[in-house]
Design brief:
Largest sheet: 7 strands, mixed
Distance between the termini: 40 Å
Radius of gyration: 13 Å
Helix content: under 10%
Strand content: over 45%
Order of helices and strands: EEEEEEEEEEE
Shape: globular
Number of strands: 11
Number of helices: 0
Length: 122
């Protein structure tokens, strides 16, 4: 079992930056791929980015590529999502998830955090 807790969300203006954190307990992050997903009101949960077990490979949704950066500190059991150049359309609840597969599909992830709200205003 892995327990995930996200933090770092908040209300910012367009163009600002935020860094989200996802802390794990129960098992080491080194055993899992970790992804970030987001869900805006009235929309389905969508893939944002993922990083493999070793932290050596990452993949991003086109909508965030070049603005967001995922990183992993296995020693601290924490994954970070650095979000720069935030846009209004980035407003959503952001979830981190851990799973066995390097995937963009939510169902491939076994463990989920409770989410953290990111709101970007004009």
């Amino acid at each position: 079992q892995v327990q995930l807790v996200e933090s770092g969300g908040g209300l910012v203006q367009a163009g600002d930056s935020l860094r989200l954190s996802c802390a794990a307990s129960g098992r080491t992050f080194g055993d899992y791929t970790v992804g970030w997903f987001r869900q805006a009101p009235g929309k389905e949960r969508e893939f944002v980015t993922t990083i493999n077990r070793l932290g050596s490979s990452t993949y991003y949704a086109d909508s965030v590529k070049g603005r967001f950066t995922i990183s992993k500190d296995n020693a601290k059991n924490t994954v970070f999502l650095q979000m720069n150049g935030l846009k209004i359309e980035d407003t959503a609840v952001y979830y981190c998830a851990a799973g066995r597969f390097y995937s963009v599909t939510p169902r491939d992830y076994d463990y989920w955090g409770q989410g953290t709200q990111v709101t970007v205003s004009s």
